[in-house]
Specification:
Distance between the termini: 30 Å
Order of helices and strands: HHHEHEHEEHEHHHEHHE
Bound molecules: S-adenosylmethionine
CATH architecture: 3-Layer(aba) Sandwich
Radius of gyration: 17 Å
Number of domains: 1
CATH class: Alpha Beta
Shape: globular
Oligomer: single chain
CATH topology: Rossmann fold
């Protein structure tokens, strides 16, 4: 499970090496350099590098907008892994930034990431509501989940969203999503030869996903959908290599394909 944080870290590092990076997170290269791990052996494919960089950029942009409008905000990165989003976003000085992940990942994070004022690590599982105890509830909050939800089952996601709206008074929840997850997506992950897919092999177990972005409102009536955006429609797709750019733009014309990589945002 924790290995997946190394995968997205390395995807950001590879993006930063590209002549025209999408995210341009040079710090991820330094963090990866501090870990004795065969990153190259993951066999990360270009499409995953570009998609990881793009969804991270899109979530960063949402956090930038929210914290600009609420300079006293709290940011919560759910399943933060080794991602140094605070460094990229550079929020206003009074923003507090909480990174929640499993204890082993947080231990690595605390060892490798530079300490920052107003940045806090929260070790714990998001399936256990004690992670909330450390985080102020009354300030405007934006919670992001980048690459997390694929590792929780549907009941755990519903329960997490209820914990969020039960604890925090008001804010936004933004995450990347894969639409309805059918057997083709599951089989593709299981059967692909690259080691990177082995690292994520338990994603989507017990989670069918959903097509209608309003579905989480049914799980939790306090959530109101405010945005559904496909990665395939983002301007940064222009920075993808030609073959991937063409394929991505074409997929963006087919709604069921466009939903396979989307950013969803809800207010509460
Ligand atoms: C694909 S990684 C993404 C990490 C980071 N958001 C990024 O973009 O680099 C998924 C992360 O979710 C974390 N995770 C999975 N299940 C979790 C749980 N129950 N509680 C907390 N974190 C969890 C993993 O440890 C891992 O760091």
């Amino acid at each position: 499970m924790e290995e997946t944080a190394l995968l997205t870290l390395y995807a950001r590092a590879l993006d930063s090496r590209a002549p025209q990076p999408i995210l341009g997170d040079g710090g991820s290269e330094q963090i990866a350099a501090g870990i004795d791990y065969d990153f190259a052996g993951l066999g990360l494919v270009t499409s995953v590098v570009c998609q990881t960089a793009l969804r991270t950029k899109m979530l960063d942009d949402r956090v930038r907008l929210f914290t600009a409008a609420h300079p006293d905000a709290v940011v919560v990165d759910l399943g933060a892994g080794l991602d140094d989003g605070m460094f990229r976003v550079e929020p206003p000085a009074a923003v507090d930034w909480y990174s929640v992940d499993l204890p082993a990942v947080i231990a690595l994070r605390d060892r490798l990431l530079p300490a920052r004022a107003r940045a806090y690590s929260v070790p714990g599982s998001l399936t256990d509501e004690r992670w909330l105890e450390a985080i102020p509830a009354e300030r405007p909050v934006i919670l992001t989940a980048n690459g997390l939800l694929a590792f929780l089952n549907e009941q755990e996601i519903i329960s997490l969203f209820r914990q969020v709206t039960g604890h925090f008074q008001a804010g936004e929840l933004a995450f990347n999503d894969y639409g309805r997850i059918g057997w083709v997506s599951r089989a593709a992950v299981k059967l692909a030869p690259q080691r990177m897919f082995k690292a994520v092999s338990h994603q989507w177990s017990g989670y069918p996903g959903f097509k209608d972005a309003r579905w989480p409102e049914v799980w939790n009536p306090r959530l109101k959908l405010v945005e559904e955006t496909s990665l395939a429609h983002a301007p940064e797709v222009e920075l993808f290599p030609t073959w991937l750019r063409v394929a991505t733009r074409l997929s963006g014309r087919i709604p069921s394909m466009a939903r396979k990589a989307r950013i969803l945002r809800y207010s509460f």
